[in-house]
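>> received
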Amino acid sequence: MDSTPPPSSASPYDMVSGALGEYIPHGNDEEQGSGAPREEDTARQRDRPRRGAGRPEQILGAVNLDRDLRITDSNLEAPVFEGIDPVPGAPFVDFLPPWDVPTVTRRLRQVLDTGEPHVARVQRLRRRDGSELVVSMSILAAAPPQEGLTVSLIAMARRLHLYAAETAIGTSLDIGETAQSLAESLLAWGDVAAIDLDFAVWTGEVVTGRPQGRIRLRRAALVPDRAWPDGYVTPGDDLPGDASRLLSHAIRRDDPAQAVVLPDRATIERVLGSPRLARTLVPGDQAACVACVPLVLDGEPPVVLGVAEVWRRADRPFEDSELFDLQELVARTAHHVDLARQHQREHTQVLALQRRLLPRSAGDTIETASVYQPATPDSAGVGGDWVNSFPLPDGRTAMVVGDVVGHGLGAAATMGQLSMEARALLSAGLAPGEVLEHLDDTVSLLDDAESGLAAGYSALGSTCCIAVYDPVSHRVELASAGHLPPVLVPPDGTAGPVAVRPHPGLGAEFALREPFEVYTFAAPPGSMLALYTDGLVEDPAMSIDEGIGRLSDAVSAVHPWDGLEQAARRVVASLAPAHRRDDVTLLLARMIGYRKEDTATWRMPARGDAPARARALVTGLLERWGTREDTKDSVLLVVGELVANAVRFGRGPLTVRLIRTGHGQLLCEVGDTGNGRPRLARKDLLADSGRGLHVVHGLTTRWGVRWTDDGKVVWASVGR
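>> returned
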């Protein structure tokens, strides 16, 4: 019975092995264990020109593995694989050098778990006689319903190896992964390969010209992956300063940079000049021959990025053709290292801006903690997620979270501008809805082809959510532009998203624009508010509502005594998808507020006796608080002037509020229903008006105005 699966369900092994049949001559089919030959196969072989068994072009092979990484089938009939005899049931790692077993096993397990292929890894295989074969190894998951893996092997002919290595090295923009790929490719010429980069290259700084002084080098990559002796320089370590003497001979000369070969141990120790230096740079007693190839970026003048080192045993000296290949590979891949350096620089700049926007302190009436995690370390620039919380001058606290479209410098520039603009407008007293209106105009302006921040970048559709907490009334004002709703956990623990009507994102077309609604809800002391971006709750395996529900459960599980920083990290760790496609941002805010005995509020009609009445009420309160006489006099003058201005220029009724803050300030507030903005005019002793605000200005540390739905509030802060 023919057990060959139909083409639609063929496994990767079947397809690779079938393709090998086009190139690898077969003996009789009984010897191959494949059953009787099929008629169409016999006809194909009869019509195809016969190939000799020893043709060097036969470089393809395949091995099938089960979930335990044991061999179930193989097709390694090409002569180049002679001496590699896979036995069904044997572990695949038996063919690997011992130091490669942990890394390759990890790769195999990763493909089993994720189904994502691992392509073109340069790998050594051990033959029966102890010699090694360099191959390009790709790992593919079996097609359902079959299980296991298919490992395809391509023996590394010289030109093919150069092509495969360059292709593999150019797949990442991460400087560490790029260096690691280059080191793995160089391992085909030696026993150990290392990449040492100029420290400026490693950190993404600008590198120009040949180095004039001593080079500071950092080890970026080292293969194979194994335990090294104490003192040996491993990835992430800086090389000793004297090590630059070894490299200067290769890279500080007038002619083009050439490989430098130290053929034996005695020469190496003589050049290094120190047993301590030899222990840090020489990978072992058997490694007694090294080729140092400078990583040089072509230009005028050429730019040195670092050096690649390939170590061998003394009985395998480098031939001229091998040195030519090494230099060609390093030269062809140096630009990939420089691209990774440029990306590292951009990544560092954007991440620094991102971190700078994270909240530092939110004041005494609210406790905040935030977490920001980029999607992946090697993503093309950090994303546009941002979060901030800051105390407003009038004693309230603002919390802002946003998600700017895109990645990289364009998104970072827009993110920084929107964040600073939101902070300035909120500090100026604008309501959350009004701030979003300004941000909406800004995003539309930045999208303009002539005035935009970055050519080809558009921030249309970015989202933002603004919440302002009043610690006296214990209420929150919130407005959202296309952002996911915050999660509120009141003191009783019944968590859930705040009911916010969906709104288009920032920069929507004029026909889609609607007024930004401001939602007000109670947040008693002990409540917790979670603001976040979609990367925290979006998962292909579930709906967005399920993701928000999981976030609500996680936040409600935070104990009132838990440290908020640790709680925020714990929430992110429990919710963030294992394979994130977007940045993750979370802001947790625990409401504290003012105690009732630290605030007082009075309402009164806007009449001529209002200033005197307000001063009498405030006098009694300040005496109960035990306020100093000089501070009491200043507060009474400020309250009297603010109430007098409200009676004269505003409309009633008036609201007078006094707050004893936790940092040595008394906050005086007078609200009315007028919409005129108090302005500090130029001093004029003969003028009938305007002197009151000059009195307020001289007696306070800060004063300002904030706007409400039915008027305004003028506030002033007096030191006590």
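>> Residues 1-9, 21-56, 451-455 have pLDDT under 50 and may be disordered.
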